[in-house]
Amino acid sequence: MMTGTEIGGRGAGGSPDEMGGPAAGAGGGGWQRSFEFLVELANCLTEYGAAVYEIEAVLAKVARHLQVGGSFLIHNQALFITPAGGTMPKTSVSLLPSGSPNISKMEAVGDVVHSLLAGEIDISQSRERLRAVAVEPEAYGPISDYASWPLMGAGFAIYFGGAVNECIVGALISATLFKINQYFSRVNDPERRRMFEPVAAATASFLAIAGAVVFPPLSVAIAVSAGLMMLMPGLALTKALNEIALGHTVTGMSRFLNALTILLLMASGVFLGTKLDQMFHLTAADYEPVEAGFGLLLFGVVVATYSCCVYAKVRQRHFPYVLAVAMVMSAVIIGGSKTLGPSLST
């Protein structure tokens, strides 16, 4: 089942003439201007990581404000717009770009939409502001982008129950994966780019076992999991399940299967890495890490939260609020784990 959003006509409680008939959009070229703006707005929202149902809801509000009737359907990175009242000859299809989370620019686009709906700006000014958002500097610079990888590896190593050794090795693994990611990001062939996940996972597995030999004692499972956290498709899985639950079954399943493929590629890479260690006769003894002290645990939560904010491009002034939420959640999870046991607290 696929769902779309309909504006105007019977679906919106009005006739095509009332809600976007031929006269809508301020005359002959009005619908075309509105159509171009809606497509540009959808492209921005997709590029900055919005979910399908969020994009359709925004397009519906804007179209209602512009008195443009029609229906909107996003199906697996394709935007279908069908005008109401016969204002255009047929349904128009626009391909949407693939995107990554950028909450800072998403908020900026939301400000543009809010100003448009409030009547403070018109379509031309809205398009100018959208283009200004696209070219404005990122919330974090290249140094922060690089530092976020080892910091995430170190932070989640502690969060997963590791100690200093797991923290160091997790950071080294993540820093190495950053360099591998830079190489694959310059590869033009999409089939070769898909090799990034297994290569990165194999590297993480190999380095974790090698680290356990060089820096004993060390929990290999924690080091591998922490080193691969930046690659985990957790956000994609969450968006996929939300889209499936809200009726966007095809798009949600496509996103879900893509995330599942990434996990399978990473699992195969981890297996390959263990075999490479066996080839070099590297074996790590089983080890249960010592419980981290309060200071080390606090450090892990702070740096892991900061790394997640850099990854999602959260505005820097919002970091204290995100950290406060992370601290409360961490206290509940860790406290529950000690009181109820890991399985019940999870």
Could you please describe the fold and organization of this structure?
This protein has 346 residues and is mainly alpha-helical. Helices cover 63% and strands 5% of the residues. It has 14 helices and four strands. The protein has helices at 30-47, 52-65, 103-117, 123-135, 142-159, 164-185, 190-193, 196-214, 220-227, 234-245, 249-279, 294-312, 319-340, 342-345; strands at residues 5-7, 70-74, 78-83, 92-95. The protein has a four-stranded antiparallel β-sheet, with helices on one face. The longest helix has 31 residues, at 249-279. Mean pLDDT is 83; it is low at 6-28.
Sequence stretches where pLDDT stays below 50 over 5 or more residues: 6-28
User: What is the overall shape?
Assistant: elongated
Please describe the biggest sheet, giving its number of strands, its sense, and whether it closes into a barrel: 4 strands, antiparallel
Global structural class: mainly alpha
Secondary structure: helix percent: 55-70%
* Helix and strand run: EHHEEEHHHHHHHHHHHH
Rg, Å, rounded: 24 Å
Q: Give the strand content.
A: 5-15%
- Nearest-integer average pLDDT: 83
Major sheet strand order? 1-2-3-4
Distance from N terminus to C terminus (CA atoms, Å) equals 33 Å
Number of separate helices: 14
- The beta-strand count equals 4
